[in-house]
Amino acid sequence: MDGQRLTTEPEITAYLVAHAIGIVSSYVLSPMIFRTVANGSLRWMLPMVGIGMSLVIMVVVLFLFLYMRRAFSGNQ
């Protein structure tokens, strides 16, 4: 490479913070949602709920990372 860095510290920080938020939200929200679905008459929906929650959390973490990357790197 031409001496160019692959990434910067603000991007790494934004990546780690976004994923930490995603992990914490999964840890807090998933059990509550799964308990609600399992206690109701919708047990057959548990796999679909799990897949849907995973996809939503992935998209939220992606958008959070993109926003924070821009915010941490300044107005460029």
Tally of strands: 0
Strand portion, in percent? Answer: under 5%
**Largest sheet composition:** none
What would you call the quaternary organization? single chain
* Secondary-structure-derived class: mainly alpha
Number of helical stretches of at least 4 residues: 2
Poorly predicted runs are none
Radius of gyration: 17 Å
Supply the number of structural domains.
Answer: 1
Write down the overall geometry: elongated
Structure description:
This protein has 76 residues and is mostly helical. The chain has one domain. It is 78% helix and 0% strand. The protein contains two helices and no strands. The longest helix is centred in the first third of the chain and has 31 residues, at 9-39. The two termini are 23 Å apart.
Question: Secondary-structure map with pairings?
Answer:
Elements: H1 9-39, H2 46-73
Helix pairs in contact: 1-2
Offer a quick outline of the entry.
78% of the residues lie in helices and 0% in strands. The protein is mainly alpha-helical and 76 residues long.
Labels describing this entry:
76 residues, mainly alpha, 2 helices
